[in-house]
TrEMBL record, chain A:
UniProt cross-references to Pfam families, sorted A to Z: ABC2_membrane_6 (PF06182)
Spans traversing the lipid bilayer: 22-43, 55-74, 103-128, 135-155, 167-190, 202-222, 228-250
The keyword Transmembrane helix is assigned to this record: yes
Name of the protein this chain belongs to: ABC-2 family transporter protein
Keywords of this entry: Membrane, Transmembrane, Transmembrane helix
TrEMBL record, chain B:
Residue ranges crossing the lipid bilayer per the database entry: 36-59, 71-90, 124-149, 155-183, 204-224, 244-264
Species whose genome carries this gene: Ruminiclostridium hungatei
Keyword Transmembrane: yes
InterPro entries referenced in this protein's UniProt entry, alphabetically: ABC-2_transporter-like
This protein's UniProt keywords: Membrane, Transmembrane, Transmembrane helix
Name of the protein in its database record: ABC-2 family transporter protein
Keyword Coiled coil: no
Amino acid sequence: MRAYVEFAKKAFQNNITYRADYVAGVINAIVMIFVNICIWKAIYEDEQSVDGVQFKILITYVVLSFLMQCIYGMDEYHIEYKVRSGSIGLDLLKPINFSAYVFSYNLGILVFRIVMQLIPALIVSIVLFKMYPPFSLSMAACFVLSTILGYLVLYNLNFIVWISSFWFYWTFSLVTIKDAAVMILSGALLPLWFMPQFLVDFINLTPFASIYYVPITIYLGQVPMEEIAMVMVKQLIWALGLFLAGKVLWRIALKKLVVQGG
Amino acid sequence: MEKKPLYNIFELLILMTKYIKLSLKSILEYKFDRTFITIAIFCREMISVVVMYLILARFVHIKGWEYDEMFFLYSFLFLSYSIFVLFFAGMRDFASMIYSGEFDRYLTRPLGLMFQIIVSRIDLSAGLGHGIVGIILFTKTAFSVGIIWSPKNIIYYIVILISGAIIQASIFMFASCFSFWTIKTENLRNMLFFNARRFSGYPISFYPGIIQKLLMFVIPFAFVNYFPSQFFLNKAEMNSFWSGYLYLSPAVAAIMFVLVYAFWKQGVKRYSSTGTSM
């Protein structure tokens, strides 16, 4: 366990050396929130029938989504790099669980992003964009829990894509296509309630809504109290399902691994 | 020291086709990979188009902008970016040429430096990825927004696309020039460029005055797509801008290129190798 904490610490320190990157991350998030708010403002100017309350809900949705994007960022090419450089051979010789190592590494990044990106972006957002506070204190707790589950769903989905580097060596394309699917289908850029019914029906069959849409709607109080447990169980099932799929794929990948020189 | 050009235009064109052939050869070496990357870039760029489509499917129009008009406005960004990465990718990747020492090789050749930098790179995957999105948007909208494609309009359109490509290339080149002074500006550049591009996906009239000014005079994306599309669409909101802006894009491109070229000359003068040349 100690070893894994050290891995996480190392990831944290690695990230902190790139100061320009994290400042850029914060500014990017704020700009994106701002662009989206401008667009929604323009939309609502036309729609006279929509009252101000709904607009504010939308603003809160947009802000939350981009704040979550801040902390959901992971090192997409960590495994790919190890496979291609051959250093994965050394990692596999070490008395550690490789999957657990990758996870702790990403947890280090998560902590870094919470401290250095989420908190500044959150403060700016509260001051600039006047988002709603959580619907209630218990909803806030549920939101945090649901966001953690959302992170796990995304992590396990990512892990499957990362493992594909055992076959492809370069995973840029797959990672990019996966990102595109996540951005649209998870409701990160557009709330599901604005989407056509057939798309929503499709999304409900996939794990994507668990990543952004579910936590945000819990925050907004749009999920009735008695259904919250249900949606979270669904998130948990997706996280576990993807985790198991990743495990199986990992087994197969290990048999496939050929290290060139290293 | 001024010297007379070593080659005439005709010879330069032949050289250029030779360079392009070489680049294409190295790109097409990995056909499967490149196709896959092109598809990935296409998907990535489609995200914002799909989101815009879903919003408009629901709300029909935003601030008087209809569905077709919005996509027509957007198509300029993709097409000009596509031209930029197909023909001026060297200006984008220039900083990495300095770090890798590739630039030193160019210095030793009896050929214009800027020419070598421009012809040495073609980003076919990004060019196609962006280009296909642009062509889809253009063909879907160009004939339904009430544009008469007279020869004059077609010439204006082509000039605008090239101007847009040069404006974007100049922004990249400007940022890259700092690497002569060993200052890394890639993060700053990407942040400014891609955020400005995000803003420009929608009409600048959606934004508060300061952002509009920024997109007109600092990172002049307004001249890549907003004013050109106003030339064709003639929307009422154009009244709040000077009508001369409609024709200014080529001038903006020329001024930016000249300024960047001067800055670049300064950099070359000051340049000392990183010592990593191969």
